[in-house]
Amino acid sequence: MELAAGEPMSSAALATSAPLGEQDLYYFREGTHARLYRLLGAHPASVGGVAGVRFAVWAPNAEKVSVIGDFNGWNKDAHPMTRRPDSSGIWETFVPGVERGAAYKYHVVSRYGGYRVDKSDPFAFFFETPPRTASRFWTLEYEWGDAEWMARRAAANSLDAPWSIYEVHLGSWRRGHDGRWLGYREIAEPLADYVADMGFTHVELLPVMEHPFYGSWGYQCVGYFAPTSRYGTPQDLMYLIDTLHRRGIGVILDWVPSHFPSDEHGLAFFDGTHMFEHRDPRQGYHPEWHSYIFNYGRNEVRAFLLSSALFWLDRYHVDALRVDAVASMLYLDYARRDGEWIPNEFGGRENLAAMSFLRKLNEIVYASYPDVQTIAEESTAWPMVSRPVHVGGLGFGMKWNMGWMHDSLGYMSTDPLFRKYHHHQLTFSILYAFTENFVLPLSHDEVVYGKGSLIAKMPGDEWQKFANLRTLLGYMTLHPGKQLLFMGGEIGQWSEWNHEAQVDFGLLERPLHAGLKRWVRDLNTFYRGEPVLYRTDFSPSGFEWIDCNDAEQSIVSFVRKESDDGPIVLAVVNFTPVPRHNYQVGVPRGGYWREVLNSDAELYGGSGQGNLGGLEAAPVGAHGRYHSLTMTLPPLAIVVFRHDGGGGAP
After folding, report:
1. What is the rounded CA–CA span in Å between residue 248 and residue 318?
2. 322 pairs with which residues across the strands?
3. How far is it, in rounded angstroms, from Cα 280 to Cα 25?
């Protein structure tokens, strides 16, 4: 029998029925129920005309479960729960008079070994602020103002739309004068203003789901349905997302179905057994992160995770989910030595259950929301991550290109004198660039743990460091694929990211830092205004090398296009501090090529060398083309030319 919120129900009936109907239970057991958050957890209800809260929790191996909270003095005997008379393992009770904001937990007594524990609610919508660990009863009403964005987001979130992503950790983007965190509402307008001014299309938030240890940056999550209370209430996070949407900015949430922490109040060993995780540590424990691995082969766990994913799309209007650490899910031997893992039924190292779960996740997400995206952080060469399930893929919309990131940063950190010996690191990415729908990430992972900030990775003196970084960011923008940049990279922050401090925006008083910021803004503006740079990101028809073999001078040149007779954008990149005068580049057309970007311009902190606004192509063959440009190529710089279309021989 299904019970709507507020529908009265007798105490006797409550013992034998619940809002979970037979169909709900069927899909729960099958592992395909994607909206369990409507049924499990704490929800307003009325029994006999008395308002209160219905609590429901899955604990199949419990002997007793009770609700404890500040409304009953945390008395484990005050509100015992009743086990459903079926095999679901769900316990329920109704508690009258519970008010919004009340703190509560479940007191669980296992049928095994006398294990007793107080657990937070896996389906709670809100938590106490850490280090306190209780759940809080909450409701999610909110009056959204983003109707215009929601009506057009299918176009804004499509694979042929521009994606320039600004990755943000809310606790350390900007702080109050006293060093405190800014709340979701406090940060909403400043963040929206900044991102809109800088021309980014999307904001990606490091996990905002509740996590006990701030230093985990949210990647050790216990509240899969609750935003962290460090920054405010669920409605405050809704306000932040709403504000970004009203400014035309999409919102991506990091989502972590790959592992969860061992904190006693969380999911681990929930009812005295390994409900959510594998029992065998060779399958259920991450040696690298000291956290537990979900049992993707257990249907109820699959339903829990599917419901979490849909929850953020349903209730928070999120535009994309970036799924963390997908490689750790796919490989049974991830971060393990021989003898520390169990092969699959065919003797291989692939996690067949995780593969099945990820495919179901993407099928359900795209069936429910064809106007959003899922993005995989997958660091290996696993095939067809961003290809549809029906053709054998995992079904993600996009995948982070970790290979491009490693090769590009490795190349850029090399002294320019020796870059000619590493030229393949620049060109190799194009060999596989169209095998997946790639995002090019310069993420938080690259500026922590002694890796140095982006600007600190660059070789040379201060001027050369900034010139190198401008060149890298320009090369990323012109390279096929969507782009992601972590906060601080856009201003050349010298220090590594520190989650206990804010981005050092004071550096913008210095010309080179201000110039870099202006360069990033202009890159984003140019990128968003040039369809050839994003409509064919995932098709080889949109990219063509002019010359990828000039290793001796460490120069590459290529074009981006949509068609042979439409606009063409030409990028020429000099990765050495030596200016190249009268450098000849073959082009596919005659006519005038306008110089539209030059990272060496003085307003960006460059030396001011360039081509006086553009060049006329001469009927002199080069690089297999009938026409060519003879240009000045500034030191450590990218210059970009545009041809409007038509004209000249092919």
Report:
1. 13
2. 254, 375
3. 27
Beta strands in 498-542 (DSSP E): none
Catalytic residues: 324, 377
Calculate ∠ Cα 217-222-227, nearest 5°: 65
> In which region does residue 557 sit, left (phi positive, over 0), alpha (psi from -120 to 50) or beta (all else)?
beta
CB 334 within 8 A of CB 291: no
Locate the DSSP E strands across 288-436: 291-292, 320-323, 373-376, 398-400
Residue at 288: amino acid letter: E
Report residue 181 as tokens: 């965190």
Q: What is the pLDDT of residue 646?
A: 63
Half-sphere exposure (Cβ direction) of 477: Cα atoms closer than 13 Å: 34
Total length of the chain: 650
Is the pTM for the entire model greater than 0.85? yes
Q: What is the mean pLDDT of residues 512-531?
A: 98
Residue with tokens 């369990």: 36
138 Cβ neighbours under 8 A, 6+ residues apart = 100, 101, 124, 125, 126, 233, 234
Bond preceding residue 588 cis, omega within 30 of 0: no
Query: Which two structure tokens, joined as six digits, stand for 335?
Result: 């971060």
C-alpha distance from residue 150 to each of 134, 141, 156, 247, 365 (Å): 34, 18, 10, 12, 16
CATH number for 162-533: choose from 3.30.70.20, 3.20.20.80, 3.40.50.410, 3.30.1490.190.
3.20.20.80
Task: Please check whether residue 610 is in contact with residue 588, taking contact to mean a CB–CB distance below 8 angstroms.
Answer: no
Q: How many helices (H) and strands (E) does the chain have?
A: 16, 28
Q: Which residues contact 374 (CB under 8 A, 6 or more apart)?
A: 320, 321, 322, 323, 361, 362, 365, 366, 395, 396, 397, 398
The DSSP bridge pattern shows strands 591-598 and 580-587 to be unpaired
Distance CA 254, CA 250 (A): 13
- The span from the CA of 313 to the CA of 365, in Å, is 9
Domain with CATH 2.60.40.10 in the chain: 11-136
Percentage of the chain exceeding pLDDT 90: 93
Within 10 angstroms of residue 132's Cβ, the number of other Cβ atoms is 12
| Residue 335 contacts residue 328 (beta carbons within 8 Å) | yes
Domain 11-136: which CATH number of 3.30.300.10, 1.10.10.10, 3.90.1170.20, 2.60.40.10: 2.60.40.10
Higher pLDDT, residue 443 or 12: 443
What pLDDT score was predicted for residue 543?
A: 97
CATH number of 540-643: 2.60.40.1180
Nearest one of 94, 93, 102, 91 to 124, comparing CA atoms: 102
Q: How far is CA 376 from CA 214, 361, 383, in A?
A: 24, 12, 12
- 247 is written with which tokens? 């400014």
β-pairing, 482-486 vs 164-168, is parallel
Query: How are beta strands 543-550 and 482-486 bridged, if at all?
Result: unpaired
Residue 177: band (very low, low, confident or very high) from pLDDT cuts 50, 70, 90: confident
Kindly state the DSSP code that residue 445 receives in the 8-state scheme: G
By CB atoms closer than 10 A (0-12, 13-18, 19+), residue 522 is: buried
> Which residues does 322 contact at the CB level (< 8 Å), separation at least 6?
204, 252, 253, 254, 255, 374, 375, 376, 377
Q: Beta partners for 557?
A: 547, 572
CA distances from 423 to 420, 426, 458 (A): 5, 6, 17
Is 90 exceeded by the pLDDT of residue 470? yes
